[in-house]
Write a structure and sequence with these properties.
Helicase, Ruva Protein, domain 3; 5-stranded parallel β-sheet; alpha/beta
């Protein structure tokens, strides 16, 4: 390949590397998870973080928003949260005898819904149209959301008090499902030794503008994938539907998400095409919450995703 063809990839990676470095400065010891979160955003998806409280889920969302120069809003999931608390409401204005729409927090470029599974199902469903179509319908009027539009939702383990499980249709709207987990020994040592100041988050600098991020997303969509790579993704989809321990396999929409996420991972690696290794890097966080095992299956969705990777040959 000529030098001219490789230069744009190196130049683009420079700005993305700066974004990763800025987030890594704030979210300690989670380089791989941060990379997956940025890949999800570049791929046009939404992110679900499933973990116990206090491991940095909210901090990651804040760091992403600030380093990318995005408008940011946060909603706290509670048992009395209403759909209008997310999408907004029309209020009657006596001055001109008409209803005036007051937009909710969903009208932002990055929306954090903390503890989504503490909100009742009706409120959870208020996000479906927004995540799928980038718009909300209120009082019969369709209202476009900002672009880019990225939802990060956090979810507590379902055995904690006051949680409502997310239905399959809701889970399918999230491109990735991540576990942050506890920090590694070195990162936790820095926290305990006082070498990490939470106020760093307030000083996070915007490495990209929203317009720059939109351009990065557009370039990510142009990363080519060869026919053999498409055949590999299709083989994984078919394997999920034929696996004896899977009750509900991967949909065509999940296949499109695999391809988009693999393109984003390739870009973050500085490659100008998608490889099977890119597919493998994103497949488990993409498939684990979409694979629904049978009642008698000895493994969960995460284990099934790993099995599919092991059992499916690369064409």
């Amino acid at each position: 390949m000529s030098q001219t063809a490789t230069e744009p990839v190196a130049q683009d990676l420079g700005s993305l590397s700066a974004v990763l470095a800025e987030i890594d400065r704030i979210v300690l010891g989670k380089q791989h998870e941060v990379r997956l979160a940025l890949a999800c955003l570049l791929a046009g998806g939404h992110l679900l973080i499933e973990d116990i409280p206090g491991v940095g889920k909210t901090t990651l969302a804040h760091a992403l928003a600030q380093s990318l120069g995005l408008d940011f809003n946060r909603v706290q999931g509670t048992s009395d949260l209403l759909p209008a608390d997310i999408v907004g409401v029309s209020v009657f204005d006596r001055g001109d005898s008409s209803f005036r729409f007051h937009p909710g927090p969903v009208f932002s470029q990055l929306l954090l819904v903390d503890e989504l599974n503490r909100a009742p199902p009706k409120t959870q469903s208020a996000l479906l149209e927004a995540m799928a179509e980038g718009q909300v319908s209120i009082d019969g009027v369709r209202r476009e959301l900002p672009s880019p539009f990225f939802v990060i939702a956090t979810q507590n383990p379902l055995d904690l008090v006051g949680t409502y499980p997310l239905p399959e249709s809701q889970l399918d709207r999230f491109m990735f499902s991540l576990h942050l987990g506890y920090p590694d020994a070195e990162a936790e040592r820095q926290l305990l030794a006082g070498n990490y100041d939470p106020l760093r988050l307030a000083d996070a600098r915007a490495v990209l503008t929203a317009a720059g991020l939109a351009a990065e997303i557009a370039r990510t969509r142009e990363v080519p994938a060869r026919p053999a790579l498409i055949a590999y993704i299709q083989a994984l989809l078919q394997a999920s539907r034929q696996h004896p321990q899977v009750r509900l396999g991967l949909s065509p929409r999940a296949g499109l998400a695999v391809l988009a996420a693999a393109r984003a991972w390739a870009r973050l690696a500085g490659r100008d095409h998608v490889t099977p290794q890119d597919v493998q890097a994103v497949f488990v966080p993409l498939a684990r919450h979409r694979l629904h095992p049978r009642v008698d299956a000895p493994v969960d969705g995460h284990g099934l995703a790993l099995q599919l990777l092991d059992d499916t040959a690369i064409p």
